[in-house]
Every structure is written in structure tokens, then in C-alpha cells.
Design goal:
The structure holds 2 protein chains of 2 kinds.
Chain A: H1 3-6, H2 10-36, H3 40-60, H4 64-89, H5 104-125, H6 142-150, H7 155-176, H8 187-196, E1 219-220, E2 226-227, H9 233-241, H10 248-254, H11 262-272
Antiparallel strand pairs in A: 1-2
Chain B: H1 4-24, H2 28-53, H3 57-87
Helix pairs in contact in B: 1-2, 2-3
The chains are: A mainly alpha, B mainly alpha.
């Protein structure tokens, strides 16, 4: 059954129009939210909304191949790469509100409006015709027609693309590589350090005897106090850095001796009596 | 009736929002995301024009834009992690070593 035959008729036209308006409003709202959101993770999620709605637009415009590539490459790979880098660079790092250049926001907004006016004028004057009559190139035969073009007319750009990808991969490896400054410690040296450090036994795991066993929940010692050794230093640093923006459960536990500890401690004492 | 003009108007709006994001935001990762938004808006215009002309060349160009954008993101984010490792900051204001 042909794709273009299925989506014909006035009812399909209305469906398209409704889908267009819903997704257009959603994508513009998400794009504005991406510019305004203070946390980088929220920006990434909103960008995913824009990209997924663009994938639907590609499908509506007779580009099923590009629609899938958009979902797989952009939303799947590029955005996940963004999220991975956010994990490395610090997920809680919010943008500062202070303007370094005075009036930067105002001028940016003004130039944005000027750009919008300019582009609207240019495109408003251009003659944008209606869609060309539907053909198999924009339906079932889309992939084969694209392949025909790529391997004939656009063969050389396609080959150069492979060089670009290899250079990008090598460049990323070179840039992300870190030189080892000292020699790698041997297993014997590591064991010696462990014995000399006064902690030959394994350290307590997070959440031992505590209320729950989340990774940021400090373990309780026999006397009911919290063991700071049991929580990773990275987590303590992150929760101490931005306490008000995290939900209640996480920010309490980062600093030792807070709300999470007392109930088990009381229970412990009553057990002793 | 959804005509290509609808999609081109939408791509104009998304492109301008991305450009404003590049100008306003300070976090280098978010600046990158705004650049991605601009590239996506340009892609939408390419695909819409391809539909209007009834030729697939616009879709091919959009495909190449996606490839180049993927390569650009990989290298850009690697540079970002290298800068972050050296300076402990992802803000574009902090990288001002070559400022006169």
C-alpha cells in the first residue's frame, strides 16, 4: 500500500493541519524555554522536544528517511552526548544571572527581533509555492531515491564526509585524552598504601543501617552517628554546592548530622535502655 | 492545508530563537545547544523547499548538515571537556586568555 495514497483526502488534510499547529506551538514554546531555562539539563530535555517535533515535520513533508535519522542521530546520539558531557561538567551548574556586558540581554533581544523582521520580510516577499504533486520519491521510494542521488550526483561530498567523520573521531580522542603525569601505581604499592593509611578493611558502604540504601545516604556507626567515609566525596561536594535547588531527600543527607539521622539514632538509644 | 510556507515560517522562528540563545546564554554547552537549534531550523527549511520543488536535493543537503553537525558536536564537546578540566568552568566568559 502506498504511503501517499493512505494520507489523501480532506480528512487527512485536516489531521495534518491540526498536527502541524500542535507541534509548531509545542516546538516554539520548547525552544523559548530552552533559551530561558537556567539549568543545562532542562535545556537538553527541551531541545529533545524540539527535535522530536521536527522529526514529525520531516515525516509530514515527505522525508521519512530524514525523520528517522533525526530521531536516531539527533535525539538519540547527539543529545545523549550533550547529557554525558553535562554529567562530566557538573549537572548542578546553573547559569549566572549577572550580566558581564551591560545591556547584553536587551541588545540580544533587539537584534533577535530585528533578525526576525528581516527574515520575515525577505521570505514574505519570496514566492513560496504550494507543494509539488505527490510522488513515490516522497513516500515509499524515498530511501532508494535518496540512495540513487547520494551514490551518483553527490558521490564526492559523500566520500569527503567519511574523511570528516574520521577526523572528528580522532580529534575528539586527542582533545579528551589526558596525559598520565606520574607512573601507574602497581597493585603492590596500592596494597601498601591501604595498610599504611590506617584503613586496611573495606570502608562502610552507603546506607548501611540507615533508613534507606541510596548512594548518598551515609552509613550509621554502632553509636548511631553517621560515617562520612561511606559517601563518595563527589556526592558530598555536589549536594553541599547547591542545597536549595535539590529536592528535600537529597540535600539533607549530604551534610552529616541532619534530619535523616535522628530517628534511627533514637531507636538505637531506646533499644539500649 | 499545510503548505511549505508554514514550515518555512516555523523554521524562521526557530532560527531566530536559536540565534538569541547563542547571544544571551553564558554556559558553553547551552550555547552549543542553541547552535544545534539553528542547524535544525535550517534543515527544516531545506526539507520544506525540497517538498515544494518536488526534488530530493534539499533532503540530501539536510542529510549532510546532520552529518556535519554530529562531527561538530563531537569535537566541540571534547574541547569543552578539555577547557573544563583546565579551568573548572564551562562559562564562555571565563575563557578570556586571548582577550586584549
Amino acid at each position: 500500500m502506498n504511503h501517499s495514497i493512505v494520507l489523501a483526502g480532506p480528512a487527512a488534510e485536516t489531521t495534518r493541519l491540526v498536527a502541524y499547529w500542535i507541534l509548531a506551538i509545542a516546538s516554539v514554546a520548547a525552544a523559548i524555554g530552552m533559551v530561558l531555562a537556567r539549568k543545562a539539563v532542562h535545556c537538553a530535555i527541551l531541545l529533545a522536544v524540539v527535535m522530536l517535533s521536527l522529526a514529525v515535520f520531516y515525516a509530514m513533508l515527505g522525508a521519512p528517511f530524514l525523520a528517522f535519522v533525526q530521531v536516531i542521530v539527533y535525539t538519540g546520539a547527539v543529545l545523549m552526548l550533550f547529557l554525558f558531557v553535562l554529567m562530566i561538567v557538573g549537572i548542578s551548574a546553573a547559569d549566572s544571572i549577572i550580566e558581564t556586558i551591560r545591556g547584553q540581554r536587551m541588545w540580544a533581544a533587539l537584534s533577535g527581533i530585528a533578525m526576525l523582521v528581516l527574515l520575515s520580510l525577505v521570505i514574505g516577499h519570496a514566492v513560496i509555492g504550494s507543494a509539488a504533486p505527490s510522488s513515490a520519491k516522497f513516500g515509499n521510494a524515498n530511501v532508494t531515491s535518496l540512495a540513487d542521488l547520494i551514490f551518483t550526483k553527490y558521490l564526492y561530498p559523500f566520500e569527503i564526509t567519511s574523511a570528516l567523520l574520521i577526523i572528528a573521531a580522532v580529534g575528539a580522542m586527542v582533545l579528551a585524552h589526558r596525559e598520565r603525569i606520574g607512573p601507574k601505581p602497581t597493585q603492590r604499592e596500592l596494597a601498601g598504601q591501604r595498610v599504611a593509611g590506617g584503613h586496611p578493611a573495606p570502608r562502610p558502604g552507603p546506607g548501611t543501617y540507615a533508613q534507606h540504601n541510596a548512594a548518598d545516604m551515609p552509613a550509621l556507626l554502632p553509636d548511631g552517628s553517621q560515617s562520612e567515609l561511606s559517601v563518595s566525596a563527589v556526592l558530598t561536594f555536589r549536594t553541599a554546592e547547591a542545597p536549595p535547588e535539590l529536592p528535600g531527600g537529597t540535600s539533607e543527607t549530604g551534610t552529616a548530622g541532619s534530619v535523616a539521622a535522628p530517628p534511627p539514632a533514637e531507636r538505637h538509644e531506646s533499644g539500649e535502655q | 492545508m499545510v503548505s511549505p510556507a508554514h514550515f518555512i515560517a516555523l523554521s524562521v522562528i526557530l532560527f531566530v530563537i536559536g540565534a538569541v540563545g547563542v547571544l544571551v546564554r553564558r554556559n558553553a554547552i547551552v550555547v552549543f545547544m542553541s547552535v544545534e537549534l539553528m542547524l535544525n531550523a535550517a534543515n527544516l527549511a531545506f526539507v520544506a523547499f525540497a517538498r515544494m520543488h518536488g526534488a530530493l536535493d534539499g533532503q540530501i543537503i539536510a542529510f549532510f548538515v546532520m552529518v556535519v553537525a554530529a562531527a561538530e558536536v563531537v569535537v566541540g564537546l571534547a574541547i569543552l571537556t578539555a577547557i573544563f578540566r583546565a579551568r573548572r568552568s564551562a562559562s564562555v566568559d571565563d575563557a578570556n586568555l586571548m582577550k586584549y
